[in-house]
Structure formats: C-alpha cells, structure tokens
Specification:
Number of strands: 0
Strand content: under 5%
Structural class: mainly alpha
Largest sheet: none
Distance between the termini: 28 Å
Length: 120
C-alpha cells in the first residue's frame, strides 16, 4: 500500500484544497437522480455545470492530484520541488494568473504559499 505517512500527507493536502462533506455528496446525488434523459431537462447541464463534480471529487480527488500531467509531474511532486518549479516560466505564468484571479490555496505546514488551478 505504501508509506502510511506519505498517504496521510497526501490525504491532508487533498482535504486542505477541497474538503467535501458527505452531506454535499448526497445532495448532489439526489439532484442528479432527479434529472431524466429528456433534452429539455438536461439543458441546465452544459460544459460549465458543476452538478456532480463534488460527488466525483469526493471519491477521486486524491487520484486526480496523483495524476501525472503534461509536464511529467503530479501535484505532490510539484509541492515537494516547488522552489525548482517556481523558476520555470510556465509556473511563473500560472502563479501570476492565479494571483490575479484569486485562485490560490494556502497549505499550512506544507509550504508557505502554493498555487494550484483547479480544473473542474
């Protein structure tokens, strides 16, 4: 299964970024369940709809953070090596964008300042 301390560290970071309670999961489940497959009832679900996102993230957010992206790293590697990645232009651009658009998360006891753009 791996190092239990590492798994706890990862889980704590995931919760710090996106803490979803079970009541939210049930609420979203019932909202989704009310929908039918009739096109007029599904119009509210477009590319920008967030209905069901918390339901999925409740079970899979930790896995999303472990996914290796197009730069060859996952979120946790990014955190561990933040000083190195801060020197990269694409990260500097991301930090600037996130700061300007108030899309940042402060992770206590991990690093002093971390930016992560959540794509939901």
């Amino acid at each position: 299964m791996g190092d239990p301390n590492l798994q706890t560290w990862k889980r704590n970071i995931a919760i710090e970024i996106k803490n979803i309670d079970i009541e939210t999961v049930f609420t979203e489940w019932w909202e989704l369940k009310k929908l039918s497959v009739k096109p007029q009832e599904l119009e509210c679900l477009n590319g920008r709809s967030k209905v069901g996102c918390d339901l999925i993230d409740y079970y899979f957010f930790l896995n999303r953070l472990e996914t290796v992206g197009n730069k060859g790293i996952n979120f946790y590697d990014f955190i561990k090596n933040i000083d190195y990645y801060k020197t990269k232009n694409y990260i500097q651009n991301l930090l600037t964008y996130c700061y300007q658009h108030n899309r940042y998360v402060i992770l206590k006891d991990t690093i002093t300042f971390m930016v992560f753009l959540l794509v939901v």
